[in-house]
Specification:
The structure holds 2 protein chains of 2 kinds.
Chain A (H helix, E strand, L loop, with lengths): L2 H27 L8 H9 L5 H22 L5 H34 L6 H39 L15
Chain B lengths: L6 H5 L9 H4 L5 H40 L6 H10 L5 H22 L5 H34 L6 H39 L15
Helix pairs in contact in B: 3-5, 3-7, 5-6, 6-7
Classes of the chains: A mainly alpha, B mainly alpha.
Protein backbone atom coordinates (compact mmCIF):
# COMPACT_ATOMS: atom_id res chain seq x y z
CA UNK A 1 0.00 0.00 0.00
CA UNK A 2 1.32 3.42 -0.86
CA UNK A 3 -0.04 6.96 -0.89
CA UNK A 4 -1.26 6.63 -4.49
CA UNK A 5 -3.34 3.61 -3.58
CA UNK A 6 -4.54 4.82 -0.16
CA UNK A 7 -5.71 8.23 -1.41
CA UNK A 8 -7.62 6.59 -4.28
CA UNK A 9 -9.12 3.94 -1.99
CA UNK A 10 -10.41 6.57 0.46
CA UNK A 11 -11.79 8.66 -2.43
CA UNK A 12 -13.52 5.51 -3.68
CA UNK A 13 -15.03 4.76 -0.27
CA UNK A 14 -16.33 8.33 0.11
CA UNK A 15 -17.82 8.46 -3.39
CA UNK A 16 -19.47 5.09 -2.74
CA UNK A 17 -20.90 6.46 0.52
CA UNK A 18 -22.22 9.44 -1.41
CA UNK A 19 -23.80 7.08 -3.91
CA UNK A 20 -25.37 4.93 -1.18
CA UNK A 21 -26.84 7.94 0.61
CA UNK A 22 -28.11 9.34 -2.71
CA UNK A 23 -29.80 6.06 -3.62
CA UNK A 24 -31.27 5.86 -0.10
CA UNK A 25 -32.79 9.33 -0.57
CA UNK A 26 -34.24 8.36 -3.96
CA UNK A 27 -35.64 5.04 -2.76
CA UNK A 28 -36.77 5.88 0.77
CA UNK A 29 -37.22 9.64 1.14
CA UNK A 30 -38.42 10.88 -2.28
CA UNK A 31 -41.54 8.65 -2.61
CA UNK A 32 -42.72 9.87 0.80
CA UNK A 33 -42.59 13.50 -0.31
CA UNK A 34 -45.63 12.88 -2.49
CA UNK A 35 -48.97 13.81 -0.93
CA UNK A 36 -48.23 17.45 -0.15
CA UNK A 37 -48.79 19.45 1.93
CA UNK A 38 -49.20 16.90 4.77
CA UNK A 39 -46.16 14.83 3.66
CA UNK A 40 -44.00 17.97 3.64
CA UNK A 41 -45.33 19.05 7.02
CA UNK A 42 -44.34 15.63 8.42
CA UNK A 43 -40.88 15.92 6.82
CA UNK A 44 -40.35 19.42 8.27
CA UNK A 45 -41.57 18.26 11.65
CA UNK A 46 -39.33 15.20 11.66
CA UNK A 47 -36.06 16.80 10.48
CA UNK A 48 -35.88 19.20 13.43
CA UNK A 49 -32.45 18.30 14.85
CA UNK A 50 -30.51 17.37 11.71
CA UNK A 51 -31.41 17.12 8.03
CA UNK A 52 -29.94 15.40 4.95
CA UNK A 53 -28.33 18.68 3.86
CA UNK A 54 -25.96 18.62 6.86
CA UNK A 55 -24.81 15.11 5.94
CA UNK A 56 -24.18 15.93 2.27
CA UNK A 57 -22.50 19.26 3.05
CA UNK A 58 -19.82 17.30 4.92
CA UNK A 59 -19.57 14.21 2.71
CA UNK A 60 -19.59 15.93 -0.69
CA UNK A 61 -16.69 18.37 -0.09
CA UNK A 62 -14.85 15.56 1.72
CA UNK A 63 -15.16 13.38 -1.38
CA UNK A 64 -13.94 16.21 -3.62
CA UNK A 65 -10.93 16.93 -1.40
CA UNK A 66 -9.96 13.25 -1.37
CA UNK A 67 -10.43 13.03 -5.14
CA UNK A 68 -8.17 16.06 -5.51
CA UNK A 69 -5.60 14.42 -3.24
CA UNK A 70 -5.81 11.19 -5.26
CA UNK A 71 -5.37 13.24 -8.44
CA UNK A 72 -2.29 15.02 -7.06
CA UNK A 73 -0.77 11.73 -5.86
CA UNK A 74 -1.40 10.10 -9.24
CA UNK A 75 -0.63 13.05 -11.47
CA UNK A 76 2.69 11.89 -12.86
CA UNK A 77 2.89 8.08 -13.14
CA UNK A 78 0.10 7.15 -15.56
CA UNK A 79 -1.62 9.86 -17.66
CA UNK A 80 -4.68 7.67 -18.22
CA UNK A 81 -5.25 7.38 -14.48
CA UNK A 82 -4.72 11.11 -14.12
CA UNK A 83 -7.49 11.84 -16.62
CA UNK A 84 -9.82 9.29 -15.07
CA UNK A 85 -9.38 10.83 -11.62
CA UNK A 86 -9.70 14.33 -13.09
CA UNK A 87 -12.93 13.18 -14.76
CA UNK A 88 -14.19 11.78 -11.45
CA UNK A 89 -13.38 15.07 -9.71
CA UNK A 90 -15.10 17.05 -12.46
CA UNK A 91 -18.18 14.82 -12.11
CA UNK A 92 -18.19 15.21 -8.32
CA UNK A 93 -18.12 18.99 -8.80
CA UNK A 94 -20.86 18.67 -11.44
CA UNK A 95 -22.93 16.79 -8.85
CA UNK A 96 -22.65 19.79 -6.56
CA UNK A 97 -23.49 22.20 -9.38
CA UNK A 98 -26.68 20.19 -9.97
CA UNK A 99 -27.38 20.37 -6.23
CA UNK A 100 -26.91 24.14 -6.04
CA UNK A 101 -28.66 25.04 -9.29
CA UNK A 102 -31.45 22.48 -9.39
CA UNK A 103 -32.09 21.03 -5.92
CA UNK A 104 -31.56 24.04 -3.66
CA UNK A 105 -34.42 26.10 -5.17
CA UNK A 106 -36.70 23.08 -4.85
CA UNK A 107 -35.47 22.36 -1.31
CA UNK A 108 -36.49 25.91 -0.41
CA UNK A 109 -40.01 25.35 -1.78
CA UNK A 110 -40.40 21.90 -0.20
CA UNK A 111 -38.72 22.33 3.19
CA UNK A 112 -38.45 26.04 4.04
CA UNK A 113 -40.97 28.35 2.35
CA UNK A 114 -44.62 28.62 3.38
CA UNK A 115 -46.70 25.80 1.94
CA UNK A 116 -49.03 28.13 0.08
CA UNK A 117 -48.69 26.58 -3.41
CA UNK A 118 -51.44 24.23 -4.61
CA UNK A 119 -50.85 20.58 -3.64
CA UNK A 120 -50.43 19.58 -7.30
CA UNK A 121 -47.61 22.11 -7.72
CA UNK A 122 -45.86 20.89 -4.58
CA UNK A 123 -46.12 17.29 -5.79
CA UNK A 124 -44.71 18.37 -9.17
CA UNK A 125 -41.76 20.05 -7.45
CA UNK A 126 -41.20 16.88 -5.38
CA UNK A 127 -41.26 14.80 -8.59
CA UNK A 128 -38.75 17.15 -10.23
CA UNK A 129 -36.54 16.86 -7.13
CA UNK A 130 -36.65 13.05 -7.41
CA UNK A 131 -35.82 13.15 -11.15
CA UNK A 132 -32.91 15.49 -10.50
CA UNK A 133 -31.70 13.09 -7.84
CA UNK A 134 -31.57 10.28 -10.42
CA UNK A 135 -29.35 12.50 -12.58
CA UNK A 136 -27.15 13.19 -9.56
CA UNK A 137 -26.90 9.46 -8.80
CA UNK A 138 -25.89 8.75 -12.42
CA UNK A 139 -23.16 11.41 -12.17
CA UNK A 140 -21.83 10.00 -8.87
CA UNK A 141 -21.99 6.42 -10.16
CA UNK A 142 -19.93 7.38 -13.21
CA UNK A 143 -17.40 9.14 -10.97
CA UNK A 144 -17.23 6.08 -8.75
CA UNK A 145 -16.64 3.73 -11.68
CA UNK A 146 -13.82 6.00 -12.90
CA UNK A 147 -12.20 5.92 -9.45
CA UNK A 148 -12.59 2.15 -9.25
CA UNK A 149 -10.99 1.63 -12.66
CA UNK A 150 -8.20 3.98 -11.58
CA UNK A 151 -7.69 1.96 -8.43
CA UNK A 152 -7.39 -1.27 -10.42
CA UNK A 153 -4.84 0.42 -12.72
CA UNK A 154 -2.86 1.75 -9.76
CA UNK A 155 -2.96 -1.68 -8.07
CA UNK A 156 -1.51 -3.27 -11.19
CA UNK A 157 0.94 -0.46 -11.73
CA UNK A 158 2.32 -0.69 -8.20
CA UNK A 159 2.31 -4.50 -8.04
CA UNK A 160 5.56 -6.11 -7.11
CA UNK A 161 6.74 -8.90 -9.39
CA UNK A 162 5.70 -11.75 -7.11
CA UNK A 163 2.12 -10.49 -6.88
CA UNK A 164 1.53 -10.86 -10.58
CA UNK A 165 0.36 -14.25 -11.77
CA UNK A 166 0.30 -15.74 -8.32
CA UNK A 167 -1.47 -18.76 -9.76
CA UNK A 168 1.88 -19.81 -11.13
CA UNK A 169 3.94 -18.61 -8.22
CA UNK A 170 4.67 -19.57 -4.65
CA UNK A 171 2.62 -16.64 -3.33
CA UNK A 172 -0.44 -18.82 -3.11
CA UNK B 1 8.80 -3.66 -50.29
CA UNK B 2 6.86 -5.66 -47.75
CA UNK B 3 8.09 -6.21 -44.22
CA UNK B 4 6.66 -9.11 -42.26
CA UNK B 5 6.92 -9.17 -38.50
CA UNK B 6 5.30 -11.95 -36.54
CA UNK B 7 3.47 -11.16 -33.31
CA UNK B 8 5.84 -13.25 -31.27
CA UNK B 9 8.87 -11.51 -32.70
CA UNK B 10 7.25 -8.14 -32.36
CA UNK B 11 6.70 -8.50 -28.63
CA UNK B 12 9.63 -10.72 -27.77
CA UNK B 13 11.97 -7.94 -26.76
CA UNK B 14 9.88 -5.53 -24.75
CA UNK B 15 12.28 -3.24 -22.91
CA UNK B 16 10.91 -4.01 -19.43
CA UNK B 17 10.34 -7.70 -19.94
CA UNK B 18 13.91 -8.76 -20.30
CA UNK B 19 13.67 -11.10 -17.36
CA UNK B 20 10.72 -12.86 -18.85
CA UNK B 21 11.92 -13.05 -22.43
CA UNK B 22 11.93 -16.84 -22.29
CA UNK B 23 8.22 -16.90 -21.57
CA UNK B 24 7.44 -14.94 -24.69
CA UNK B 25 9.27 -17.21 -27.06
CA UNK B 26 7.11 -19.79 -28.65
CA UNK B 27 4.89 -20.61 -31.54
CA UNK B 28 1.76 -19.02 -30.10
CA UNK B 29 1.28 -15.28 -30.38
CA UNK B 30 1.52 -13.49 -27.03
CA UNK B 31 -1.85 -11.83 -27.56
CA UNK B 32 -3.46 -15.29 -27.37
CA UNK B 33 -1.68 -16.03 -24.13
CA UNK B 34 -3.07 -12.83 -22.67
CA UNK B 35 -6.56 -13.52 -23.97
CA UNK B 36 -6.58 -16.99 -22.37
CA UNK B 37 -6.05 -15.45 -18.97
CA UNK B 38 -8.09 -12.32 -19.50
CA UNK B 39 -11.56 -13.93 -19.41
CA UNK B 40 -11.04 -15.66 -16.09
CA UNK B 41 -9.26 -12.61 -14.72
CA UNK B 42 -12.01 -10.25 -15.85
CA UNK B 43 -14.66 -12.46 -14.23
CA UNK B 44 -12.70 -12.62 -10.98
CA UNK B 45 -12.18 -8.87 -10.97
CA UNK B 46 -15.78 -8.03 -11.96
CA UNK B 47 -17.11 -10.37 -9.29
CA UNK B 48 -15.19 -8.45 -6.63
CA UNK B 49 -16.30 -5.08 -8.06
CA UNK B 50 -20.03 -5.61 -7.43
CA UNK B 51 -19.89 -6.51 -3.71
CA UNK B 52 -17.56 -3.58 -3.14
CA UNK B 53 -20.09 -1.27 -4.78
CA UNK B 54 -23.05 -2.72 -2.86
CA UNK B 55 -21.27 -2.85 0.51
CA UNK B 56 -20.04 0.72 0.12
CA UNK B 57 -23.58 1.80 -0.75
CA UNK B 58 -24.84 -0.04 2.33
CA UNK B 59 -22.22 1.73 4.42
CA UNK B 60 -23.20 5.11 2.94
CA UNK B 61 -26.93 4.56 3.48
CA UNK B 62 -26.37 3.29 7.03
CA UNK B 63 -24.18 6.30 7.80
CA UNK B 64 -26.92 8.55 6.42
CA UNK B 65 -29.47 6.91 8.69
CA UNK B 66 -27.20 7.19 11.71
CA UNK B 67 -26.23 10.81 11.00
CA UNK B 68 -29.55 12.16 9.74
CA UNK B 69 -32.44 10.04 11.01
CA UNK B 70 -31.34 8.86 14.47
CA UNK B 71 -30.62 12.32 15.99
CA UNK B 72 -34.21 13.29 15.16
CA UNK B 73 -35.72 10.45 17.22
CA UNK B 74 -36.04 12.66 20.28
CA UNK B 75 -39.22 12.01 22.19
CA UNK B 76 -42.65 10.63 21.39
CA UNK B 77 -43.82 13.48 19.07
CA UNK B 78 -40.70 13.05 16.90
CA UNK B 79 -41.34 9.31 16.61
CA UNK B 80 -44.94 10.02 15.65
CA UNK B 81 -43.75 12.39 12.92
CA UNK B 82 -41.24 9.80 11.73
CA UNK B 83 -43.99 7.19 11.44
CA UNK B 84 -46.20 9.66 9.60
CA UNK B 85 -43.40 10.60 7.18
CA UNK B 86 -42.88 7.02 5.95
CA UNK B 87 -46.33 5.90 4.78
CA UNK B 88 -45.26 4.70 1.30
CA UNK B 89 -41.87 3.12 1.86
CA UNK B 90 -39.60 2.88 4.90
CA UNK B 91 -35.84 2.41 5.40
CA UNK B 92 -36.42 -1.28 6.20
CA UNK B 93 -37.55 -1.92 2.63
CA UNK B 94 -34.31 -0.43 1.31
CA UNK B 95 -32.00 -2.38 3.62
CA UNK B 96 -33.98 -5.62 3.22
CA UNK B 97 -33.21 -5.43 -0.52
CA UNK B 98 -29.64 -4.15 -0.40
CA UNK B 99 -28.29 -6.51 2.28
CA UNK B 100 -29.34 -9.78 0.55
CA UNK B 101 -28.06 -8.38 -2.77
CA UNK B 102 -24.68 -7.62 -1.14
CA UNK B 103 -24.60 -11.11 0.40
CA UNK B 104 -25.31 -12.75 -2.96
CA UNK B 105 -22.68 -10.63 -4.70
CA UNK B 106 -20.15 -11.54 -2.00
CA UNK B 107 -20.98 -15.24 -2.40
CA UNK B 108 -20.52 -14.97 -6.17
CA UNK B 109 -17.15 -13.22 -5.64
CA UNK B 110 -16.11 -15.96 -3.23
CA UNK B 111 -17.03 -18.70 -5.71
CA UNK B 112 -15.19 -16.95 -8.57
CA UNK B 113 -12.09 -16.46 -6.41
CA UNK B 114 -12.10 -19.69 -4.44
CA UNK B 115 -9.10 -21.36 -6.05
CA UNK B 116 -6.44 -18.89 -7.24
CA UNK B 117 -5.34 -17.14 -4.03
CA UNK B 118 -6.12 -18.56 -0.56
CA UNK B 119 -5.59 -15.17 1.12
CA UNK B 120 -8.27 -13.62 -1.11
CA UNK B 121 -10.57 -16.56 -0.44
CA UNK B 122 -10.30 -16.06 3.31
CA UNK B 123 -10.70 -12.31 3.07
CA UNK B 124 -13.88 -12.70 1.03
CA UNK B 125 -15.09 -15.44 3.39
CA UNK B 126 -14.44 -13.08 6.30
CA UNK B 127 -16.41 -10.31 4.59
CA UNK B 128 -19.29 -12.73 3.92
CA UNK B 129 -19.24 -13.95 7.54
CA UNK B 130 -19.28 -10.35 8.78
CA UNK B 131 -22.24 -9.47 6.58
CA UNK B 132 -24.14 -12.53 7.78
CA UNK B 133 -23.37 -11.32 11.30
CA UNK B 134 -24.78 -7.91 10.32
CA UNK B 135 -27.99 -9.67 9.27
CA UNK B 136 -28.10 -11.60 12.56
CA UNK B 137 -27.52 -8.41 14.54
CA UNK B 138 -30.27 -6.65 12.61
CA UNK B 139 -32.76 -9.44 13.21
CA UNK B 140 -31.97 -10.08 16.85
CA UNK B 141 -31.05 -6.60 18.10
CA UNK B 142 -32.52 -3.93 15.82
CA UNK B 143 -35.80 -5.51 14.76
CA UNK B 144 -37.24 -5.71 18.32
CA UNK B 145 -36.22 -2.08 18.90
CA UNK B 146 -37.62 -1.05 15.50
CA UNK B 147 -40.92 -2.60 16.57
CA UNK B 148 -40.95 -0.57 19.80
CA UNK B 149 -39.97 2.67 18.08
CA UNK B 150 -41.84 2.45 14.78
CA UNK B 151 -44.53 -0.21 15.11
CA UNK B 152 -46.10 -0.58 18.55
CA UNK B 153 -48.33 2.09 20.14
CA UNK B 154 -46.29 4.84 21.82
CA UNK B 155 -47.72 4.40 25.33
CA UNK B 156 -44.50 4.19 27.40
CA UNK B 157 -42.75 7.17 29.08
CA UNK B 158 -40.37 9.29 26.98
CA UNK B 159 -37.34 8.10 29.01
CA UNK B 160 -38.02 4.52 27.91
CA UNK B 161 -37.97 5.48 24.22
CA UNK B 162 -34.83 7.53 24.79
CA UNK B 163 -33.16 4.42 26.22
CA UNK B 164 -34.30 2.30 23.27
CA UNK B 165 -33.01 4.90 20.77
CA UNK B 166 -29.65 5.03 22.60
CA UNK B 167 -29.38 1.23 22.36
CA UNK B 168 -30.41 1.29 18.70
CA UNK B 169 -27.70 3.85 17.91
CA UNK B 170 -25.02 1.90 19.84
CA UNK B 171 -26.00 -1.24 17.92
CA UNK B 172 -25.84 0.70 14.67
CA UNK B 173 -22.25 1.78 15.39
CA UNK B 174 -21.35 -1.90 15.77
CA UNK B 175 -23.17 -2.68 12.53
CA UNK B 176 -21.36 0.14 10.72
CA UNK B 177 -17.98 -1.06 12.02
CA UNK B 178 -18.71 -4.55 10.69
CA UNK B 179 -19.79 -3.22 7.27
CA UNK B 180 -16.68 -1.01 7.09
CA UNK B 181 -14.46 -3.99 7.91
CA UNK B 182 -16.20 -6.00 5.18
CA UNK B 183 -15.67 -3.11 2.72
CA UNK B 184 -11.96 -3.01 3.61
CA UNK B 185 -11.62 -6.79 3.19
CA UNK B 186 -13.31 -6.71 -0.23
CA UNK B 187 -11.25 -3.68 -1.31
CA UNK B 188 -7.99 -5.42 -0.34
CA UNK B 189 -9.20 -8.54 -2.16
CA UNK B 190 -9.98 -6.50 -5.27
CA UNK B 191 -6.51 -4.92 -5.21
CA UNK B 192 -4.95 -8.38 -4.84
CA UNK B 193 -7.05 -9.80 -7.69
CA UNK B 194 -6.21 -6.78 -9.89
CA UNK B 195 -2.51 -7.39 -9.28
CA UNK B 196 -2.85 -11.11 -9.77
CA UNK B 197 -4.63 -10.72 -13.08
CA UNK B 198 -2.37 -7.92 -14.34
CA UNK B 199 -1.27 -8.38 -17.90
CA UNK B 200 2.35 -9.37 -18.34
CA UNK B 201 2.76 -6.54 -20.77
CA UNK B 202 1.70 -4.01 -18.14
CA UNK B 203 4.92 -2.38 -17.14
CA UNK B 204 5.84 -0.57 -13.97
CA UNK B 205 4.77 3.01 -14.04
CA UNK B 206 8.14 4.58 -14.49
CA UNK B 207 8.87 2.68 -17.65
CA UNK B 208 5.36 2.64 -19.04
CA UNK B 209 4.92 2.77 -22.72
CA UNK B 210 1.17 2.90 -22.27
CA UNK B 211 1.23 6.42 -21.00
Amino acid sequence: MNLRMISTAIALALSAMLLGAGVYESVVVAPNLQGAPSSLEHARGFYHATNPGIFFRVLSPGTQILLLLALVCNWAPVPLTRWRLAGALALAILGDVVTFKFHYPRNTILFNGPLTLPAADLDRVAREWALGNYARIAVILTAMVLVMVSMIRIARDTASGEHRYSSSSSAR
Amino acid sequence: MKTEISHSTQYATLPDASGRAEEYRGNRPTSDLGRERSWGGTLRLASSFLPLLLLSMLFGASSFQLAVDAPNWTGVPALERYRAFYPVINPGTFFQTLLPAALLALLAALVCNWTPIPATRWRLSGALALMILVGVLTFTFHFPRNKILFGDPLTRPAAYYHQVVTEWVAGDYVRLAMILTAVALVAVSMIRIARDTASRELPNSNTSGAR
